[in-house]
Structures are given as C-alpha cells and as structure tokens.
C-alpha cells in the first residue's frame, strides 16, 4: 500500500473528501487527519483523527530503548555467566533481576524520551500544522488510485503534499476486522 498526503485549511472540505472516498470504496480506516485542532476534528463525524499517542514518537523511541535494554541485558547475562553467578540460586536471581530491570528501565526511558517529541514521520508537516492547516492522508492500493485522484480533483483547496510507504495491507485489514469482530461477537 502507498500513503498519499494532502493539505487543506477547511475541515468541512476534508470531511467531504473523506465521505466521497468512502462512497468510492475506500474504507475509513485507510484515511486519517492530522491537525492541531483536535476539537474541530472530533466535531466532524466523517473524518478519522490520528490517535493522540501516534502524534508522539512514543512507540519508535520505546522500541529503540527496548533494543538498547536488550543489549544491556545480554551483557549482564554474559558477565554473570563469566563470573559463574548462575552456579547459585541467589546469583541466578540477582543476575536475572538486573538483566530484566535494565531492559525495562531502558524501554521506559525510551518511551519517556519519545513522548516529548513529535512523531518523526509527521515532523515534515510541522510548518503546515503550525500555520493552521490540516494534513489528510490515505493508505491505498494501486487499484484505488484512480478513485483517489478523481475525488481530490473535485475539491478546491486540497493540495497534494507528498507520498510515502503506507501501512501493510494485513494491518489495514485487521483494523477493519477487529472492530467488526468485537461488535458482532460481544454483546
């Protein structure tokens, strides 16, 4: 899938575009709006806002912290093996506690670092967002591109601002299937 980014200054137009794309067969889970006006986005039922947690770099930084923590934990285990700490139950508990603790601490620190920063994938749009514009993006398959182009051409004030690799197809399918499963299965 490919992700197409558009910019607009009117949420009503973006909502109209979203509805038109939905009527053309593009699912709402494939469309998102990134904006500093969260209240305005929430007041429009036809648009799907970017989740607050995805606006921050929490996941990416947390994963980097987990990677650093895994390396440190591996180092702790290797040093404990070299010192023969696993020969006694107390040494085993201490070594594993320090390894698990350092892994958890590094993951936590990475997350704390990331929650303070904007998502690096959206940082290129910071100027647009600061000027009051909204970023609308769509993850689509190749066969949906003509419908996207036709819909965008019919809306004045919405301009293309870039492309990127979209979400994997299986993830978009699961975003569609999980809520459907939960509403049909659970009372």
Give your account of this protein's structure:
There is one protein chain. By secondary structure, the protein is an alpha+beta fold. The protein folds into 2 domains: 2-56 and 121-185, Alpha-Beta Plaits; 58-115, no CATH class. The chain has helices at 11-23, 38-42, 52-55, 58-82, 89-115, 126-130, 145-153, 169-185; strands spanning 2-8, 31-34, 134-140, 159-165. A 4-stranded antiparallel β-sheet has the order 2-3-1-4. Helix 4 packs antiparallel against helix 5. It is elongated.
Low-confidence stretches are none
Spatial order of strands in the largest sheet: 2-3-1-4
Distance linking N and C termini: 34 Å
The CATH class of the largest domain is Alpha Beta
Q: Can you give keywords for this protein?
A:
Alpha-Beta Plaits; 13% strand; 187 residues; alpha+beta; 4 strands; elongated
Short description:
This protein has 8 helices and 4 strands, in the order βαβαααααβαβα. α4 runs antiparallel to α5.
List the helices and strands and how they pair.
Layout: E1 2-8, H1 11-23, E2 31-34, H2 38-42, H3 52-55, H4 58-82, H5 89-115, H6 126-130, E3 134-140, H7 145-153, E4 159-165, H8 169-185
């Amino acid at each position: 899938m490919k992700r197409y980014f558009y910019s607009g200054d009117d949420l009503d137009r973006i909502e109209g575009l979203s509805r038109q794309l939905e009527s053309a067969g593009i699912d709402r889970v494939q469309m998102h709006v990134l904006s500093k006006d969260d209240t305005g986005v929430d007041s429009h039922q036809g648009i799907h806002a970017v989740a607050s947690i995805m606006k921050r770099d929490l996941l990416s930084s947390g994963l980097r912290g987990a990677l650093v923590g895994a390396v440190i934990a591996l180092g702790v285990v290797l040093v404990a093996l070299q010192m023969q700490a696993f020969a006694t139950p107390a040494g085993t508990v201490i070594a594993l506690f320090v390894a698990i603790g350092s892994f958890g601490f590094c993951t936590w620190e990475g997350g704390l670092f990331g929650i303070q920063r904007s998502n690096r994938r959206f940082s290129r749009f910071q100027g647009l967002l600061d000027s009051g514009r909204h970023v609308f993006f769509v993850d689509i398959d190749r066969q949906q591109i003509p419908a996207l182009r036709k819909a965008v051409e019919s809306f004045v004030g919405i301009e293309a601002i870039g492309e990127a690799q979209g979400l994997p197809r299986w993830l978009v399918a699961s975003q569609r299937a999980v809520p459907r499963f939960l509403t049909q299965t659970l009372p």
